[in-house]
Amino acid sequence: MKRWTLLQIALILSSVFMLIQLVIWTKFSSKEIGEPNPSRVKDVIKALMNVWDHDKGKLFLMDPDILTEYAEDKMEGQACGSFCQSQKRLVTFGVIGDVKKSLRPVFHRLRSYNFAVVDSIDEFPEFVGDTSFHVTSHVFLQNMKYPEPSVHILVLYERAAGFLWHSKIQVASSDLSFGYEAGSYKKFDLEHTVIDGISLYIPKPVEKFLDSVPQSRYIECDQKRADNFLKAHPPDVSSKAKYFQRKARQLIAQGKEVLNKLGMRFWISSGTLLGWYRQCDIITHAQDVDFGMWIKDYNSQLIHEMEKAGLPLKHVFGRINDTFELSFQAGDVKLDIFFFLTGSNGNNFVGRSLGKRKTCNQPISLPADDESRVCIRDLPGLQNVLNVSPELESPEHSCCRERKRKTCNQPTKQFGPKTGNFSFEL
Predict the structure, then answer these.
(1) Range list of H helices, 286-379
(2) Which stretches of 219-325 are DSSP H helices?
(3) Rounded CA gap, 231 and 226, in Å?
(4) Are residues 205 and 227 in the same domain?
(5) 243 and 138 share a domain?
(6) 390 — pLDDT class (breaks 50, 70, 90)
(7) Which terminal Cβ of the chain has fewer Cβ within 10 Å, N or C?
(8) What is the model's pTM?
(9) What is the CA radius of gyration of the chain?
(10) Together in a domain, 158 and 257
C-alpha cells in the first residue's frame, strides 16, 4: 500500500513537470520569440558592448553573415542594415584568449549585468613550456531581457606555429557559424568601426577574413599515432636528415607563397601527406615535396612566377588536359605538383610520371572539385601552410595504407578506372 502511494505521488509530480515543460515550450516557440524583432538584435549587441571589459580581451564581431552585410552596406551607403535588419538567432563574436589567463572575471561581470553565461572547457592541444592547460573555448550568452538572439563568443588561441586556433564544439546547432569543426586562421589585426550606431571591433581587412572562413577547417595531427610509429621506427636524426627537413619546409613555404599569390588552391599530397599523417613531420628519406591541385585552378603564369621566386622548372610531364605534372628544383630538393582532373565518366584522376618520359592516369577517390574543401594542418616549423582535400585525410585512403603499392601502367591518353590506387611504401 505504501509503495502504491509513493507511485501515485511520483505520477502526479511527473504530470506537473510535463505541464510546466509544455507551457515553457509553447512560450518559447511562439511567434513573438521564435522570430526575433530586428531591433532586439541591435539591443542585445549594444548591451553586450556596453558591459564588455576590453581590457580583458578585445571583443570583435566575426559573424560571416553580418560582416558580409556590413561590407555591402558600407559600399552602398546604407544607414541601417547589418544589425537593424538582422533576423539572426545567434550572432558570433570572437576574442583572443590567453592560455594562462582565465575569463572568469569577464563572465562574472556579464552575469551581474543580466546575461546568462554558459562556457565550455577544452584541453589546449599544446604544452606551454612543460605545462598543459585547460582553456575556455566557446561561450554562449543570453540577455535575460531578450531571449533572442543569443551570442556565441569564439575564443581563439595562438598556437606555437604562429596561427590562431579554435576548438570544435560538442553541441550541434544549425545556427552555428563556427565550431562544427576546429578552425585555424592567420593572425589578423582589428579595426574599430561603428555599425548601426554601435561602436565595436571587426577583423582587418574584413574581406580577407571572410575569404578565409570557408577554408579554415583545422585537423590536428594525431600525435599519439606518430609517437607509436616513431617508437617502432626511430627517426633518422642525422645531420643529412635534418638538413633535408629544413630545406623541405623552406620549399613548402616558397611554393605556398607563389600559389597563394596566383590564387591557386593546393594541398599536400603523396609522400608529404604521408609524413604528416604517419609521423606529424616530413619523411627524412624523401627527396622531394609533393603538392596536389585541381587542373581547373591552373594559372599559365605558374612557371614564370616559380622561376621568379628562385624555383627553376625541372620537368614537365603530360599535357594540361591529361596527366599534367610539373617539377621545380630548389637546390637538391624538388617540388612536384600533381594536377587532378575529372574524366568524362565523372571519376577523378591524377597524372603520374613513370620515368623515361612515360606518364599515366591513376584514379583517385576525391570529391568533385566544386564540392571539395581544403583543410589546414601544420608541420613543425611551418605556419598552417599545409592543405589537403578531405578524402585524403582518412586513414582508409590508399595514400595512408602501408605496404600496398600497386604499379600504374595505364596508357597516357586514356581515362579509365582500370589502374590501382596510388599508395606509398614504408
Answers:
(1) 302-308
(2) 223-232, 239-262, 270-279, 302-308
(3) 8
(4) no
(5) no
(6) very low
(7) N
(8) 0.70
(9) 27
(10) no
